[in-house]
């Protein structure tokens, strides 16, 4: 049987009741407390303290502290006033104590259940707030990336328009130069014809008789620009000539990419492609990028060069450049036919991987799904696409 504690002490004020129960040398971690508005219990085997209070107290604001070899209860009275005694009667009915004990246990269970529900509700609210904040951060990041894309697009458009304007000006200057040369050539021919005619009729200016001086001949100098075409201006066909001149100007523009420091082999795009492949296998990805770029200067319509350069950018973590090169390769691989299916598959996977590295999982999943349409039996592609779906679902709280 438990040993009842008799050497407890208590004090009171108008509003508070203080009860001190000694622990008899028992460790604090073995103490079990139970309290309600009318009943308190302290159990630390083999000792037991039970008390049916004289009047009800506020169980929510009351406290119990364990330490320094005792349990100290600080009980706030529901109604201020002096009790002058701790319990209702000196001799307490055991049946009443049992009833109050059961009520206290039930109330503590209800309180614990309510605290658990409040804690769970608070946790759900915190998780919801966290998810909303993460979605907001992702939206802000997506908007930032879209703004960067829009800025780059506008910048590229402006540079393209500026380049077109420069090309138009250069073409106009070239056309004017050729026209001047045509005029000069026509003037030169007219001058030669005039000299020939003058040579044939020269005897009219020679002396006709002895002592009669020769007639003075005047000379007029005329300068003309050189004419490109051998035909006279009156016999030329202007539309065909201008078309030919435009082609010549375009050819001269193409020659602007010539680099005198490059050898003939380095001007061969296939040679540079093979060199770039060797750099890539050796792990020198920046050198491979430079070699692919040189090859593209001489063959800008080869989709494999863009796709391979995208693989190098992916290794170098240049994800935006990877997406740009993959997009160019896919554009050049149209129309989609079985012969270019493998190339389109590589470009789509690299582009999707770059999007996922930028945490743009929705865009990356779209590219992987397009790749699966090309090769629906590819188990690795299926597994990667499923991982991306799981990331998207977890980030949206589904």
Automatic annotation (TrEMBL):
It is found in: Cell projection, Neuron projection; Dynein axonemal particle; Nucleus. Keywords: Cell projection, Cytoplasm, Neurogenesis, Nucleus, Repeat, TPR repeat. Residues 187-207 are annotated as: Disordered. InterPro entries: CS_dom (IPR007052), CS_DYX1C1 (IPR037894), Dynein_assembly_factor_4 (IPR052004), HSP20-like_chaperone (IPR008978), TPR-like_helical_dom_sf (IPR011990), TPR_rpt (IPR019734). TPR repeats lie at residues 269-302, 345-378. GO terms for biological process: cilium movement; inner dynein arm assembly; nervous system development; outer dynein arm assembly. Residues 3-87 form the CS domain. Pfam families: CS, TPR_11. GO terms for cellular component: dynein axonemal particle; neuron projection; nucleus. PANTHER family: DYNEIN ASSEMBLY FACTOR 4, AXONEMAL (PTHR46492), DYNEIN AXONEMAL ASSEMBLY FACTOR 4 (PTHR46492:SF1). This is Dynein axonemal assembly factor 4. It comes from Mytilus coruscus (Sea mussel).
